[in-house]
Each structure stands twice: as structure tokens, then as C-alpha cells.
Amino acid sequence: MKVTNYFLNFDFGGRARRSHYWANLACWIGALLVFAVIGMAVAPEPEGGASGVLSLLLGVGVVGAMVDNMAMVFRRAHDTGKSGWIWLLLLIPLINLLPFYWLMIEDSQQGPNKYGPPVKQFYQAPAATA
Hints:
Oligomer: single chain
Shape: elongated
Helix content: 40-55%
Number of strands: 0
Largest sheet: none
Strand content: under 5%
């Protein structure tokens, strides 16, 4: 499902360029900071009411960011020719430095690979298989 070019893609298939990964990350950080600032502005009010609703929205936003970022990591790994499940290595301290390099710094694999053709546009949905 693609909502915007920057974030809210929730698409685990295909490939994603390095610039798309960084733009996605920047958009989510910005969105979560806006929610946090609004939440802190409302926090001095008594318990419940608007602050509870904003906390719930922030929680939903964090879960959405995690799922969307996981989908982006899958597509970015596919772009470098690796399995999307490499994100599990990101959870292990110190060992996560190598997958971090692969996903966020390494250049895309030239030409098509088993995950699809190279992405030339900022966001390109994977081709439908028939």
C-alpha cells in the first residue's frame, strides 16, 4: 500500500533506493517529533482528556513507524541483493554494524536481481506478477 512517496508505504516487496530510505526515516522522525511536542504542550492538563488521546495517537504513530520502517528495511535489503530478514541482525548490538552498512550506506546492486529490476524513480511499486 503506497500512500506517499516518503513514508506510509507498508510495502515489503520490491526494491528501494538509499535516498528513499533516508527520506522515509527523516519523515517519520519529523512526524513523531510533532506528535511529541503537541503531547508535551497538552501534558500539564489534568489526567485523561486530550493528553490521553494524544498519548494514544503517539503510540499508534510509533507502531506505524516501526512497521513502515521494517518494510523499508526489507526493500532496501532487496536493493542490495540481500534477504529482507537481515533486519533481525540489526537487533544484536555490535553485530548490527555490518547490516547497518549494507542497508544504509552500500550502493544499490546494478541491474535486475531476484527481487526485481533496479528502481529508477524515487518510489516504484513492485511489478505485479501474473
